[in-house]
Automatic annotation (TrEMBL):
Domain of life, source organism: Eukaryota
A single MF term (Gene Ontology): dioxygenase activity
Stored SMART domains: JmjC
Keyword Iron set for record: yes
Record protein name field: JmjC domain-containing protein
Keyword Nucleus attached: yes
Domain JmjC per the UniProt entry, residue ranges: 260-396
Compartmental location: Nucleus
Length: 396
């Protein structure tokens, strides 16, 4: 473990020696950060740590003043830089298991909230997780009973057409019959070579590989609800408290770029070859993770990009609507929710949304090893029928 920690410290030192100037961002914070950096080269580790934590706290306060989109890039860069320094100082303080986990949290805060030194922070987190793996003790993880279906969703089977299914369609067939014509299709047989198909069923694998990593989760049945919120939690806590057993409130790791944060997990998946039929040559798809217990719901919405939803663990029930029905789905007027429907197709209120009665839907159950192509602009509601781990690939 000590060898790995020493390697991390050496790795960080070169990054911390880079030139910087944050005076145009915040002169007082620039001064305080320089002081903590200078103190880090002395025996004043505790003083330096106190100073850099003060910087992080002040920057954090600025993040929560006004809109996130309006946060200056320089402020986010300072947060990354200060997180890098905090990592070094924590490792100089101690290198036991508790301190390693605390350090990994500091790194992830820099990755999730900052916008710089991503490669340095990612490598440091990966190395420290490897050190933790040396002390990992496997504990039996038993999933809660998730075999029972959701009656509300299954009642919907009486309405709408089933999404067509193809087994390993050629690129030419997919391009001609589905991509160009913007029609949904469920594809089978294209995930058999994914290591994730077997590895991710073992929750101990995820905990051992990345249990100490900090991830954002959504709390509440729908992001459109007033009581919906978000928080940061370790992957191990999330799995043990919200996935293995059903918590009081639905909690979902949703639409998170987990594979950028934890590259080791990206080694377990493969980008569908169909994504490379993109209009924009050379552009890699946006890859997001969706992990949660039975019953998590993404309300009816549309995305501006094409989407391949790949089901790795468990199953999901998906309802889709052609963009031509947009008006009858009653999108929210709010600019942040204009791509989300007010009407719930599982329990529609026809008094409030009378035109919804004219809408025709498509639907399918997406099982392990299957992918669903959702064309851009198509409305879709997604519900987990069991503990579920999915990967989405967004592309133009």
């Amino acid at each position: 473990m000590k060898i790995i920690v020493d390697n991390v410290l050496q790795h960080l030192e070169s990054s911390l020696s880079a030139e910087f100037d944050y005076r145009n961002v915040h002169e007082a914070l620039d001064f305080l950060f320089r002081k903590s950096l200078n103190d880090s080269h002395t025996e004043n580790t505790k003083v330096a740590l106190s100073s850099v934590e003060a910087v992080l706290e002040k920057v954090w306060e600025s993040f929560h003043t006004g809109s996130w989109a309006d946060v200056p890039d320089g402020m986010r860069k300072l947060y990354s830089h200060a997180s890098l320094l905090k990592t070094k100082l924590l490792l100089k303080t101690a290198n036991d298991e508790r301190m390693l986990k605390k350090t990994i949290k500091a790194i992830d805060m820099g990755l999730l909230m900052g916008n710089a030194f991503r490669n340095e922070l990612t490598i440091a987190a990966s190395l420290l997780c490897k050190a933790l793996q040396q002390t990992f003790v496997e504990v039996p993880v038993k999933l809660c009973d998730n075999s029972k279906s959701n009656n509300n969703s299954y009642a919907f089977h009486r309405i709408g057409d089933h999404v067509p299914i193809l087994h390993q369609p050629s690129l030419e067939t997919f391009l001609r019959d589905y991509l160009k014509s913007k029609k949904p299709i469920k594809i089978t047989g294209n995930m058999e070579h994914w290591p994730a198909i077997n590895k991710w069923k073992d929750l101990n694998y995820l905990i051992k590989l990345a249990g100490a990593r900090l991830v954002p989760v959504e709390i509440g049945s729908s992001y459109a609800d007033a009581d919906w919120s978000q928080k940061l939690i370790t992957l191990e806590e999330f799995i043990n408290i919200h996935v293995v057993q059903e918590g009081e409130k639905s909690t979902y790791l949703a639409q998170h770029q987990l594979f950028n944060q934890i590259p080791e997990l990206k080694d377990d998946i493969r980008v569908p070859e169909y994504c490379y039929l993109a209009d924009v040559d050379g552009e890699e798809p946006d890859i997001n993770a969706w992990l949660g217990p039975k019953g998590t719901v993404s309300p009816t919405h549309y995305d501006p990009k094409n989407n391949f939803l790949a089901q790795v663990v468990g199953s999901k029930y998906i309802i889709l609507y052609d963009p031509k029905w947009s008006e009858y789905l009653y999108p929210y007027d709010d600019k942040f929710l204009k791509n989300t429907a007010q009407v719930d197709p599982v329990k529609p209120d026809f008094c409030q949304f009378p035109n919804f009665s004219h809408v025709k839907a498509m639907h399918c159950i997406l099982n392990e090893g299957e992918m669903l192509f959702i064309p851009s602009g198509w409305w879709h509601r997604v519900e987990s029928l069991s503990v579920s781990f999915s990967v989405s690939f967004w592309w133009m």
